[in-house]
Structure formats: C-alpha cells, structure tokens
Amino acid sequence: MRYLLWWIDACTESNTTPEQKKVDRDWAESRFKSINAVPTFVMGRHRLVGVQSYQALTELVTHYGVIARETPAKANKINKKRKDEDS
Q1: Model confidence, pTM
Q2: Residue 19 and which of 5, 28, 30, 34 are 20 to 30 A apart at CA?
C-alpha cells in the first residue's frame, strides 16, 4: 500500500495542488481496497456496501465488540428523570 501511494505521488504532475494529491491518494486507496460504491463500511474482513439499515450497521459494529452507548435523547430523558427525583 505504501508503495502504491508513493507511486501515485510520483506520477502526479508537479503543478497539482496538495488537495488534488490528497484526492488522488484517496481514490488510489479505495481502488486498492476494491471499494467501488459509496457509502462502503469496512470493519475487519466484513464490508457493507451501499445504503444500509441502522440494524445492519449495529450488527456490524457489535460483531467487532463495539458497545452501544445511550443516544443523546435517551441520556437527556434519564438526566431529567434524575433531576426530578432529586427535587
């Protein structure tokens, strides 16, 4: 991968902007990883391509041990309930 990125940098014209070089590197990396659709979610050896349901994304990340945390709305509701109990 490092060689591929070096090669991309070496082959780009000297008059390209740093931003253009970054975009070229991103495109090269996506081709290297066989990513050909947006969005593509990659975790480990699993990938989800295209628009996915919340459930599919949740299953992917929990498969790799990510622990879900409370949503801001749920956290606000719990904090409000605690405040009411303290009053």
Answers
A1: 0.53
A2: 34
DSSP 8-state secondary structure symbol assigned to residue 68 = P
Strands (E) located in the chain? 40-43, 46-49
DSSP3 helix / strand / coil % (the chain, rounded to 5): 55, 10, 35
pLDDT tens digits, one per residue of 31-47: 998 999 999 999 999 99
Which amino acid type is present at position 49?
V
Contacts within 8 Å (CB) and 24+ apart, 15-19: none
**Would you call the peptide bond into 72 cis, given omega within 30 degrees of 0 as the criterion?**
no
pLDDT tier at 59, thresholds 50, 70, 90: very high
